[in-house]
Structures are given as C-alpha cells and as structure tokens.
Write a structure and sequence with these properties.
Length: 221
C-alpha cells in the first residue's frame, strides 16, 4: 500500500490539478526561468499528474506562447525577445484602452471605492519602497479594471499577452524611479474611471502603455 508521499498510477490518471494552469502560474511567477527545460517526468512528479496530462498542458502552453518545443530536445520556457515584448505592449495599449473606457461606463459606487483603495495601497507601497508589493498591486489593478469592463474576450487576450511579457514587466518594475512614474499614470486611469469618463479613461490607459513601451525601448536589446 503506497504511503502518502507516493503517487500511484490511479492518482496520476485522476489529474487532481489543472496542470495547464499550474505550469502557467509557475512560469508567470518566475519559478521556471526563460529557456529552462520542462521535463515531462519531472513535472509529472512535481504536480502529481500523469505524463500524458503534462504533455497536453505543454502543447496548450505552446499555443499560448509561454512554451516552445525544440526538435529532439523537448519543451522549454520561451524567452520573449525585447522587440516582441514591445509589440505585445502595443497590442495591450489598444485592448486595455478599450477596457478602461468600458469600465468607466459600468463602474459602480462600490467598485469606485475599491479602485481608490488600490490607488491608496499603491501610493503606500511606493512611499515605503516596497517594489514587489507595488508590482502585485499593479497587476491586481489591471485585472480588476478588466473585470469591471465586462469584456471577456479582451480578458482572455490580455491574460495571454501579460503572461508572455511577465519577465519584462518585472524588469521594468525594478528600474529606479519607474514606480513613481507608473503610480501617477495609474492614478490618472483610476480617477477617469471613477469619474465615469470613458474617453479620459481610454486616453489615460493608452498613455500608460505608451510610457511602458518607451521604457522598454530604453532596455538593451
């Protein structure tokens, strides 16, 4: 009889976790580095699922642009080059501008209070020098605006784009002085949405992503 530390074939066949989501989260979180090999047997052991489930997940993540398969070498985390990161941000600029405008049309009084609470938390994080906390709040704010917008198709597009760009977003957050710049841009987005001004919200969102693109262009290629 297997111990609690052992994984039986029956356990693996049950696929107790969403392995695609689990590997995706690990990549986005930085647990797997760019160009790191993703070995099916190792992932099967780590997540307690069958190798078939891992294989299917890696194919799905390849389609999402997070994983690449190298002939005769298996799968690895795809390293997104800088020029592609800029292209991704340009697409985000259009889609997130739409979401900000829609959020301004739909936002409730309760959601206004929530967004302003995030704004205040971001100010505190920057004032206290908590860069990682600010980065987390940044991600949460963008996600909440998308949710408020009600744009489900845009949400799926942006989820994939942001996941592919996570390494560059993290590098950007560490640039000296960048959080202060970003803070003012996010504040403008929040204020426009809370004022229920769709055109102003879209302009603010596009201005923020333009700033991101300009910052990325300053990175060494």
């Amino acid at each position: 009889m297997p111990t609690h530390e052992q994984t039986t074939d029956a356990d693996r066949n049950a696929e107790p976790v969403d392995i695609t989501a689990a590997i995706r989260t690990a990549i986005v979180r930085g647990d797997f580095a760019p160009n790191q090999r993703l070995v099916e047997a190792d992932l099967s052991e780590q997540f307690g699922v069958s190798r078939g489930g891992v294989r299917a997940a890696l194919f799905a993540l390849t389609n999402e642009g997070l994983v690449e398969r190298i002939q005769h070498r298996g799968a690895r985390v795809r390293a997104v080059p800088l020029n592609e990161a800029i292209e991704i941000s340009e697409v985000r600029m259009a889609v997130e501008g739409l979401c900000a405008a829609k959020a301004a049309e739909r936002v409730t009084d309760e959601q206004v209070a929530e967004l302003r609470g995030i704004d205040e938390a971001m100010r505190t994080a920057v004032a206290e020098g908590h860069v990682l906390r600010y980065s987390e709040l940044n991600k949460a704010l963008h996600g909440r605006i998308i949710e408020i917008s009600g744009q489900r198709t845009a949400a799926e597009v942006l989820r994939r784009l942001r996941a592919q760009n996570v390494r560059h977003q993290f590098q950007l957050a560490l640039v000296p002085g960048r959080p202060n710049v970003s803070l003012a841009e996010h504040h403008a987005i929040i204020e426009a949405i809370c004022a229920r001004e769709p055109e102003a919200a879209e302009r603010a969102a596009r201005a923020h992503l333009t700033s991101v693109i300009n910052a990325l262009r300053s990175f060494p290629s």
